[in-house]
Amino acid sequence: MQRDLLELGLTKAEEQALQNRRTGIFIFQVSWILTFVCLAIVNWQMRFSSNWMPNPDDRLGVIIASIATGVLGASALLIRRSVMVVNNHHLSRFLRLWLMVIGLGVVFVGLIGYEWVIVPTGTQYAQVFRLMTGFHIFHAVCIGIYLGLVYVNGRKRVYNANDYLWAVEAGAKLWYFVLVAWLLFYVVIYWI
Amino acid sequence: MATATYPLGGALAPTKRPALSEYLRWSIDHKIIGVQYMVTSLIFFIIAGTMAMLIRWELLTPTIDLMANGSSYNTLFTLHGTMMIFTWIVPMFAGFGNYLIPLMLGAKDMAFPWLNAFAFWLIPPAGLLLLAGYFVGPAEAGWTSYPPLSTIYSPDGQTLWALSIHLLGLSSILGGINFIVTIKNMRPPGMGWFQMPLFAWATLATSIIVVLATPFLAGALTLLILDRVAGTTFFNPVAGGDVLLWQNVFWFYSHPAVYIMVLPGFGILSEILSVHSRKPIFGYRMVALSSMAIAIVGFTVWAHHMFTSLQPELRIPFMITSFIIAVPTGIKIFSWIGTIFGGKIRLNSAMLFALGFLSLFVIGGISGVMLGAIPVDIHMHDTYFVVSHFHFVLYGGSVFAIYGGIYHWFPKITGRMLNERLGKIHFVLTYFGFLFTFFPMHILGMQGMPRRVAEYDPQFQNLNILVGLSAFVLGISTFVIIYNMLVSVVRGKVAGANPWRALTLEWQTSSPPPAYNFVGDPIPFEDPYGYGTDASKAYLDAMEARFGASYNPEKPKALPPTNSTPALEPSAGD
Questions:
Q1: Most buried of the four, A178, B319, B458, B532, by CB within 10 Å?
Q2: ipTM, 2 decimals?
Q3: Cβ-based neighbours of B249, under 8 Å, separated by 6 or more
Q4: Is the pLDDT of residue B569 over 60?
Q5: B158 near B78, Cβ under 8 Å?
Q6: What is the pLDDT of residue B412?
Q7: How far is the first Cα of chain A from the last one, in angstroms, to the nearest whole number?
Q8: How far away is chain A from the Cα of B233, in angstroms, using its nearest Cα?
Q9: Which among B257, B272, B268 has a CA at the least distance from the CA of B96?
Q10: Alpha carbon of B246: minimum distance to chain A alpha carbons (Å)
């Protein structure tokens, strides 16, 4: 995904700035994923609670969540493709792919949002489930809004070549973050 | 390894101190932001210190007399502890880092200047949010905020407390990311990892802890806020919640946070001891790597704060890791003693505070090892012994390092020297005020005086009077350095670029440094602590020839009273 910096014809300062951004977003991702790890630990510890899940039927099935996971995975593949496309200066194809990513993101949020609403309440399981999925949806929506801004700016052609590259790359990396965080939760909530 | 024996960047632009108004508004200059951090945290230090004075005033007698009731006292120690940690020590070290790291690396600014400013500007509102609790019923669950005290027994100020710590945590994470990227990506050619100043190593280790530990605090605070405002019951055992959940997650952040509060102090100490002993750091690599070891091992010791509530079979592993972490800390102490041993010691204020740190931190470290032992901890738990231990670490360690750092870098930041006589008075008052405030607390703790109580058994009163009076001396000592700074910034002797003849890059520019720090790219000396060699002497002489004479503390002679440094022509080879 990352093009060779020398190919971009960047000045030394621009090259430094791009390196800093890439390192910075990587560290941010490593750091912030730990809030999700923290909530996964909360899930684990609360299982010892006396009020964890009195009725086993209260646990949600895996079907909707698996579909949502597939949708999110597909969107991550598409966003990777869209970054490759924009690197080859195919702007209209990029915009189409990017819009599809946003659309799949909306579907994902809708499916998990539905689960959030229907989970039977009154147990620690439900509280922790809502906490984890709500926290994830919040991030997906915020990053989705950013993807929307990239799309709007792409349509307006407001980016120059280098900025365009970074805005798109950052959006993709943030969306991968959404995917990785969800995979962690998906396994912990539905499979363990 | 760089072979340069002469410094330097290009021409030096005339510089003058920024106007006062620049410090009061948004700026992306790391030096302005650094000073903003320092001054803001100093203000919170005075507020939290005033609270400490009120605590000691209350404890002069065994009964409640100054406070209206126990809740008022609870609020006082809650806000005192919280503010000292989150709005004084942590941001003060962030201030040092902001000011010094780009300079030490020969960089023109931090990696993300805008983010840097944003991280700072989260702090004043967060501090005010803490104090705003007084309008709605302030937090009173201690800085650790254990549920159910912090959930069902605290007023709305506890929610503001949690929101405030959330903001401060976010600020820390953003700052930590910025430091790591700056240190990793922006070192100049010729400065490998092991040519980096030890303060940069310490800041790197601290930042790694910050970015890995603080997200856990964010998670815990989110749960706490939800329990308080959204009706969840994560911490309410009656509804199936678990109070130990908070303790585990909170301490998983807060024990590493102890190292967030002391590792930068270690870095400052390494700089001061080497420069003012005129000797290389003894075991540079071990000092650098021990910071990283502390950062890593620091994540494995959190449950020693929970010995009294932990399952017995888990206690011993945490006792062992708690002992292990003393090893890298001991390496540092040994190295620092090796550094000053046989050195040409300048016993100035910076050095006095550094030596003060060494002596007091060792006491705090030893009492820490004592508390790491399960039987001792169970006996001493929640007594004044614990209060004494962490004040020896955080005041005797961190605050002494901060003072030492101020005396060391004030000339760089302001272009003026601090008054040495006032500095020594400050040291004597602080050192003995501190010692007589906190050492007797060991005895009180061993005799069984519990912490966090406004009323106590009359048998403890004599020692509490000694502690209280000493605390007032300690409180007064703070105003000596504040007075010194205020007077010296206006009337202090002109410092010049490098009054200490130090080898690190922050001294290779004018005092105060110009916008963007250096004109051209400075060349670091091959060893930042290579004092006492012909090459280092040649380097320092060349620096003096380039930047003009600096104030010489050993042969005091006034320099021309100007804040400006004349423009110099670039020399050959720049």
A1: A178
A2: 0.92
A3: A38, A41, A42, B216, B217, B219, B220, B223
A4: no
A5: no
A6: 95
A7: 33
A8: 8
A9: B268
A10: 9
